[in-house]
């Protein structure tokens, strides 16, 4: 059962354009939704995250839009740059585990973004 | 330390051999996670440590997989009798409970290839 579905698998955007990646989740217990950026040979790095009590969060050129009723969230990258070319993962986590605080992340399968000059 | 470190960066082994993968979390981080990244399955949770205890082992795929953490710091993931389907990148992440408790910082991973 894939709990977080991500699309598209790959995306090609012109420099200066807007990149949009979408995710949908099934488990209503999820309460934290981060996006990670991964470059080849590196581990994922947190880009931006949102909780379901807000519908949008913006940090620089990156914006998360969140629709709780539809159980969907998306990442928008404004003014996309060649340096943004990477694989992006959405993820979700829920409140820990018997109070022990496990915030294990459930990841989407990733979107490979290529920004062409 | 400056970040999460993992060793070795690459490991090639023969089917049936045991392997040990090491993770050094960020100093002071009490929570430590292991994930596996493979082409077909994406990133999957394996095990969670809080201090030296592992209250959540729900992601370990079989009893060939085990992990331990000592001194609330270094963790070792052991895979016994490796199989070709174990080939993947094994990622470690650490976090610190608090205001940013959900921020998991990932290491660069260990790429395991089982021949």
Q: Can you characterise this structure?
A:
- The complex is a heterodimer of chains A (117) and B (115).
- By secondary structure, chain A is mainly β.
- Chain A has one domain (4-97, 105-116): Immunoglobulin-like (Sandwich), CATH 2.60.40.
- Helices cover 0% and strands 55% of the residues of chain A.
- Chain A is built from no helices and eleven strands.
- The model of chain A has no long low-confidence stretch (mean pLDDT 91).
- With 115 residues, chain B is mainly β.
- Chain B has one domain: Sandwich (Immunoglobulin-like), CATH 2.60.40.
- Chain B has no helices and eleven strands.
- Chain B has strands at residues 5-7, 10-13, 19-24, 31-38, 42-50, 53-56, 65-69, 75-79, 88-95, 105-106, 110-114.
- In chain B, β4 and β5 (42-50) form a beta hairpin.
- Chain B is globular.
- The model of chain B has no long low-confidence stretch (mean pLDDT 92).
Largest sheet of chain B: 7 strands, mixed
Average pLDDT of chain B: 92
**What is the CATH H-level superfamily of chain B?**
Immunoglobulins
Globally, the shape of chain B reads globular
Write down the oligomeric state. heterodimer
Could you give a short account of the major beta sheet of chain A? 6 strands, mixed
SSE blueprint and pairings:
The complex is a heterodimer of chains A (117) and B (115).
Chain A: E1 4-7, E2 10-14, E3 19-25, E4 30-38, E5 45-50, E6 56-59, E7 62-67, E8 72-77, E9 86-94, E10 106-107, E11 111-116
Parallel strand pairs in A: 2-11
Antiparallel strand pairs in A: 1-3, 3-8, 4-5, 4-9, 6-7, 7-8, 9-10, 9-11
Chain B: E1 5-7, E2 10-13, E3 19-24, E4 31-38, E5 42-50, E6 53-56, E7 65-69, E8 75-79, E9 88-95, E10 105-106, E11 110-114
Parallel strand pairs in B: 2-11
Antiparallel strand pairs in B: 1-3, 3-8, 4-5, 4-9, 5-6, 7-8, 9-10, 9-11
Compact overview of the structure:
The complex is a heterodimer of chains A (117) and B (115). With 117 residues, chain A is mainly β.
Keywords for this entry:
heterodimer, A: 117 residues, mainly beta, Immunoglobulin-like, 6-stranded mixed β-sheet, 11 strands, B: 115 residues, 7-stranded mixed β-sheet, 4-stranded antiparallel β-sheet
